[in-house]
Design brief:
Order of helices and strands: EHEHEHEHEHEHHE
Distance between the termini: 33 Å
Pfam families: adh_short_C2
GO molecular function: oxidoreductase activity
Keywords: Oxidoreductase
CATH architecture: 3-Layer(aba) Sandwich
Domain Ketoreductase: 7-206
Bound molecules: NADPH dihydro-nicotinamide-adenine-dinucleotide phosphate
Shape: globular
Largest sheet: 7 strands, parallel
Structural class: alpha/beta
Protein name: 3-oxoacyl-[acyl-carrier protein] reductase
Amino acid sequence: NNPLNGKVALVTGGTRGIGAGIALRLAQDGADVAITYQHSADRAAVVAKQVEALGRRALAVQADSADPAAVRAAVDRTAAELGRLDILVNNAGVFLVGPVTELGPDEVERTIAVNVRAPYVAAQAAVRHLGAGGRIINIGSNVGERTVFPGLSLYSMSKTALIGLTRGLARELGPHGVTVNLVNPGPTDTDANPADGPNAAAIAGFTALGRFAEPAEIAATVAHLSSADGGYVTGAVVNVDGGFTG
Ligand code: NDP
């Protein structure tokens, strides 16, 4: 059962954590997969090998999401080298946290460039390649909707912006048969937010389930939204957060 057979996906920030989990799940479901990365060429190569071990084609592209030209080039290269583009997953993100008195314009610029402008630019570039049945899935955050700790103003602001982007794009691309959704992960065990980190117990305590997610649990929802079965879901904000928001 390979619901994504013949499809091509691009996952930004696919070397580790949630992005790697999504890349591998989409490959398991039958898609050829391109990933982007910023620094981790070695880890990108490992994920590409894992995709190939699943019998799919893989492509790893160095592309700093803060650079719009690099983001556009990654989208176009995916379509050129893998032959088409069906699924864009805007996953790469930066997590700059701290008091509002300490995070200044440079941090604001960086956060907006990677977390907001890059998804917009990638979607813009992808539109030319996506046909009917195409998918854009943005990765937001549970704290876009419920910000339980101080220090998250900037990060939360950037993730809340994705709600507007998702809804606007859904309206714009719906007539072309392309769906656009936002998946908001809850606390997920990754390098950025390790389940054994100093604040992990407090963070897990805000979920109904009392635990962190594994990247595969976020990826499962992305896979559903990517498949034909998810075809009537668009403009939605899907919380995969263990009840953090509820
Ligand atoms: P990680 O820090 O574990 O991994 C980040 C990934 O993004 C890496 O592959 C990294 O590549 C890539 N990346 C980072 N910055 C850039 C950039 N400027 N250009 C290109 N690639 C980049 O993050 P997570 O897996 O934890 O998070 C993934 C997404 O999920 C993010 O959008 C995050 O905001 C969101 N999220 C995470 C939660 C969590 O608890 N983990 C909760 C809610 C949302 P490289 O290895 O080359 O640096």
